[in-house]
Description:
Layout: H1 13-42, H2 46-59, H3 94-123, E1 129-133, E2 137-143, H4 157-170, E3 177-182, H5 196-214, E4 222-226, H6 239-245, E5 247-253, H7 255-258
Parallel strand pairs: 3-4
Antiparallel strand pairs: 1-2, 2-5, 3-5
Amino acid sequence: MGRPKKNEEHGSGSAGMERWLLTYADLITLLMAFFVIMYAMSSVDASKYQALAQSLKSALGLAPSNTSFIPNTMAGGKSKDTAAKNKNGATVPKEQVLNVRNAKEEHEFANMLNKIQEYAKAKGISAGLKVKEDARGIVINLSDKILFASGKADLSPDAQAILDDLAGILLTSNKYIKVEGYTDNVPIHTDKYPSNWQLSTDRAVSVIMYWISKYPQASDHLSASGYGKYRPVAPNDTPEGRAKNRRVEIVVLRDIISRGEPGAANNDTSTVDLGEKLPGQKK
């Protein structure tokens, strides 16, 4: 009888030892990486932890990669929201800063809304000047009839007086203001305005250019856009509906939205007084 053959499947000698060492080395490498990550996480603040968690979610396919969140602190910079300090120089938590700023903004908007409503009522123009608060901020809806002649973008003397009065309420707030022009769907074909696009844009520009000429200090807080017949607020199949769509909207933007405007970083202050009393508030 011959000798039984060795089991080649398990191997022998140095080849088997090498396979065991490879497995062991992989395990040690994984353990080292695990402890390095644990050590790094132990000294990372909340924003860095969230960034790491979001990156892991994206890598594992649990969140879209385009939603990856990398705050300025991860890149070695300073986050504006976490850099705020109180008047004593102590760092203020981001949530506390946002709560204070939001409370101030809501109070400011409520006061502004009340003043505009009272002004429209006192002047007897409530039908042509409506105001509301929405997600963007304060929205003042001005009918085209109280600002312009039909098919034109030149401000009437009455319109200039209204804009002067509104400037006393709006331009002192240091908020960013966007003026938007709209028309109905009736085509316009004149030498100056071959389309409603040009008319709506020119009307919005006329408003901010008038303000800039009288209040140049507000120039960097103003912008204009025209939407033509698009974004109607009423059906265009009746004269009443078309009249509602011919309008100019003055939008006083919330800080969270206006940060996307050029130069809007001025809305973020490096210090915050958490004990500051709002008008009408008891300490």
